[in-house]
From TrEMBL:
Name of the protein in its database record: Putative OsmC-like protein
Species whose genome carries this gene: Roseateles asaccharophilus
Residue ranges the record marks as coiled coil: none
SUPFAM superfamilies: OsmC-like
Pfam family, one: OsmC
InterPro entries, per the entry: KH_dom-like_a/b, OsmC/Ohr_fam, OsmC/Ohrsf
Domain of life, source organism: Bacteria
Length: 148
């Protein structure tokens, strides 16, 4: 039996445009495919996958640092998602690369090395996606120093 069950309903607006409704939330989300299939009226499923990985990594890093009562805000994350054709000629996500940036210099954060060593393990989405897609992660501080 699942420990947590997430329920989402999708309703087609037209063509490849869908409204997503999430149980327990008032917010809805419009998704759409880019041309020629759709009108790019909202993020595509590829955008949503990339965003889910980046948001989860950012949340996990924030969680790991806040455990030590550290304030790294504002965090940001840039993602590059690569899509290639497989042997059958079908498009597949081949890799996701995430660059997280802390909003402060590394020197101002206690226990940073420990948080960096463990935060990815807290990320439910990234760890699940990694079972099928390579996900690489870099972390930089506010001064552009690469920490991971």
């Amino acid at each position: 039996m699942a420990e947590i069950t997430i329920r989402t309903q999708l309703q087609q607006d037209r063509d490849f445009r869908f409204q997503a409704r999430f149980e327990g939330l008032e917010a809805t989300l419009l998704s759409d495919e880019p041309a020629p299939l759709g009108d790019s009226a909202g993020p595509s499923p590829l955008h949503l996958l990339s965003s889910a990985v980046g948001t989860c990594l950012s949340d996990s890093l924030l969680f790991a640092l806040r455990k030590y009562k550290q304030s790294p805000e504002p965090l940001s994350c840039e993602l590059e998602t690569s899509v290639e054709r497989n042997a059958q000629g079908r498009l597949r996500v081949s890799a996701i690369h995430a660059k997280l940036r802390l909003g402060v210099p590394a020197a101002s954060l206690a226990h940073l090395e420990r948080a960096l060593a463990q935060f990815e393990e807290f990320c439910t989405v990234t760890q699940s996606v990694r079972a099928a897609i390579p996900v690489s992660v870099q972390v930089f501080d506010a001064q552009g120093v690469q920490l991971k």
